[in-house]
Specification:
The structure is a single chain. The protein has 188 residues and is of the alpha+beta class. It has a single domain, classed as Aminopeptidase (3-Layer(aba) Sandwich), CATH 3.40.630.30. 28% of the residues lie in helices and 30% in strands. An eight-stranded mixed beta sheet has the order 1-2-3-4-5-6-8-7, sandwiched between helices. Helix 1 packs across helix 3. The longest helix has 16 residues. It is globular, with a radius of gyration of 16 Å. The two termini are 22 Å apart. The structure holds coenzyme A. The site of coenzyme A has 22 residues, from helix 2, strand 5, helix 4 and helix 5.
Length: 188
């Protein structure tokens, strides 16, 4: 897989399954992104600055809004529910990996969790990443104690491959991570 092109077109029409729609991020996502970044569960599993200030949220949003024109930034989609444009969460596709490999990461606003939104979002981006980005393999990484994230990947068809010892640093602590993968052939 060649390096990601400098510009990637967001899917048009947006990816949707009739319940969840994924769209590029917008300025109006700021309050939702900020609330999510300040949530205790988010802070447990994700490398957000603590405290997560409005300045941090603005900087993150600017980077994510520009991700379609910045090959070093993960491609970012806002998760919305059909019939509303409001921020419900974010799903990211990192292409800064060995050729052919794209890593998926995500977070859902605390008020929108346990409604199946991230599972739907992963199912929507996966075929798009294979087709539009030419990915040969999608990866996801979860802390062994992050049950919700593991369930979501499993529900979306990913295979649990095994434990990578000390493979990531989260909030300054070196952690083991479970590696999950999805291949185009898994989508049948
Ligand atoms: C992980 C996260 C994105 C899941 O989002 P979500 O939209 O609530 O997930 P879903 O509703 O699609 O649920 C997926 C599965 O996890 C289960 N689940 C969700 N929250 C759970 C929880 N707190 N404890 C146990 N299981 C949980 C659901 O029941 C579902 O499993 P099922 O289909 O077998 O019933 C969300 O909890 C979150 O934002 N967490 C903080 C950030 C984070 O952990 N990001 C991932 C880092 S790897």
């Amino acid at each position: 897989m060649p390096r990601r092109p400098d510009h990637v077109d967001p899917p048009d029409p947006p990816l949707s399954d009739g319940t969840v729609t994924l769209r590029p991020m917008r300025e109006s996502d700021l309050p939702g992104l900020m609330e999510e970044g300040r949530d205790e569960t988010t802070r447990r599993w994700v490398n957000v600055p603590i405290p997560y200030t409005e300045k941090h949220a603005r900087e993150e949003l600017t980077q994510l809004m520009g991700s379609w024109d910045d090959p070093t930034a993960p491609l970012a989609f806002t998760i919305t529910e059909c019939g509303s444009d409001e921020y419900r969460g974010v799903i990211l596709l990192s292409t800064e990996r060995p050729p052919g490999i794209v890593e998926v990461a995500y977070g859902v606003h605390p008020a929108a969790r346990r409604r199946g939104l991230v599972t739907r979002a992963i199912r929507l981006v996966s075929p798009w990443a294979f087709e539009a980005l030419g990915a040969a393999r999608l990866e996801g990484r979860t802390d062994p104690e992050n049950i919700a994230s593991q369930r979501a990947l499993e529900r979306a068809g990913f295979t649990r491959e095994g434990l990578e010892r000390g493979s990531r640093s989260v909030q300054g602590v070196r952690k083991d991570m479970i590696c999950w993968s999805l291949l185009p052939s898994d989508l049948g």
